[in-house]
Here is the input.
Amino acid sequence: MSLNPTILIQNLLNGLMVGGLYALIAVGYTMVYGILRLINFAFGDVMVMGIYFAYYGATLIRLSFPLAVTVSLAGTALLGIVIDRLAYKPLRNSPRISALITAIGVSFFIESFAVVFFGPNYKPFLDALENKTIAFESFVIGNVYLPKIIFIILGITAIALFILFVIVYRTKIGMAMRAISADIPTTSLMGINVDNVIGFTFAISSALAALAGVMWALRYPSFYPYTGFVPGLKAFIAAVFGGIGSIGGAVVGGILLGVIEMMIITLFPTLMQYKDAFAFIILIVILLVKPAGLLGKRTVEKV
Amino acid sequence: MSILEIEGLHVYYGAIHAIKGISFKVEPGKIVTLIGANGAGKTTTLSTIAGLIKPRRGKIIYNGQEIQGLPPHAINRMGICLVPEGRRIFPNLTVMENLMMGAYNRKDKNGVKQDLEWVFSLFPRLAERKNQLGGTLSGGEQQMLAISRGLMSRPKVMMMDEPSLGLAPILVEEVFEIIKKINKEGVTILLVEQNAVGALKISDYGYVLETGNITLEGHSKELLANEQVKKAYLGL
Ligand SMILES: Nc1ncnc2c1ncn2[C@@H]1O[C@H](COP(=O)(O)OP(=O)(O)O)[C@@H](O)[C@H]1O
Ligand SMILES: [Mg+2]
Here is the structure.
């Protein structure tokens, strides 16, 4: 087996990029889980809605691309709040299984909504760009072609994750989010409206998923209502891999998952068809070997 | 006028009738204590006043306004603070962050700074540990943090649920001294204790709670001298 260094570097970068996108969605899973012990399976679908919003914002309403993306992030943030208020809030004191089933229902609902309103067929995302060439330009170093878009996506992912960490660890509302993840009733005793903080958590998680979606669509431009299914699932796996409830873990888990996937198919190109199965193998292994995930702590059951 | 008045309060946990129509009053500037054995309904009473539990019937009147049924954050913002049973420190937040959680809704930065200095003067150990995670503190330190966190909201009424529970005797003394100091600053205190002696010694007025009913009330000095109380709660 001869390894072509060019392909190795390119795939490594691709893995890093895809992993970063998993991470952006995974932090949403992990934050919502940390606060409500709920897996919001709809993040993959929120990601797709982010793509549709940006696409229609640019093509139908003719907004500039950056503005269309901004509107998409705001729209999905609102969507996240609405999902929480309508679907999850009434179930706060219900058994967890009810919320879990509801989460699956929300996911199906959004997918069906997209099929009905946006159509079941694939759409070309690059139509949203005034200048499509940006998606195809490359840096050339020796005989290695490095697509510019990968670096742009990596940069934006890094900035978004940095902003998220600043919010969670350096702002008042971030402090309230962390407090809620430890103890909801006591947080409410501090004069904090817990529902508003939970709504805020859904808003930023959803906007991050949408941002991941838009960048996903820049790299893999053909999209349809079920485009979010696989990345959403893998982001969930990444969150478990890294240690669900841990934001750092979600980032590490996402990036590692993206890189591992790419490395396996680089080393064993014949396994390409099974690419999507690796994530599940990793999930099974981590659940067997270290159930709390890479950075997860063993949860202390709440009294 | 009483600052806090409870009228015919009934609280249920499903079919369990935990509070059976109790009434009591807290006068402004006083320390009032609710004593009673384990399971009498002390925590339920305070949690209901704080808004964590909704009463089935009855009124909770704060400064002339009915507040039963309001959410806990709204009740806290009105100036009623609960230092909960078991301290309930945020273990994943630093000591400083725990304190700032108490001051979450305050806009007066200078006042917050002053109060911070005040609680650090009450509990110098917290100042030394301000960058440590709450979960790493000892039980006594956590109790001090819980009280300080409550003070950071600058409450008008401070409810404390068994602040002496599980503390070494020397710390129990210290906690009761601190409660007196806080009261001297003008904070009205509603104190719940199983340690009836300690609570009655520092309080002005007391109520005895037994399985969801108030069976006795009086000035704390009288209760300390009361034969019934002596037998049942003071172990004399
Ligand atoms: N969450 C709960 N669910 C059911 N019963 C409860 C609950 N909390 C307390 N109780 C019951 O209510 C009664 C009063 O409890 P509590 O207010 O905790 O008493 P205290 O604080 O005086 O020890 C007890 O009989 C207790 O078993
Ligand atoms: Mg109790």
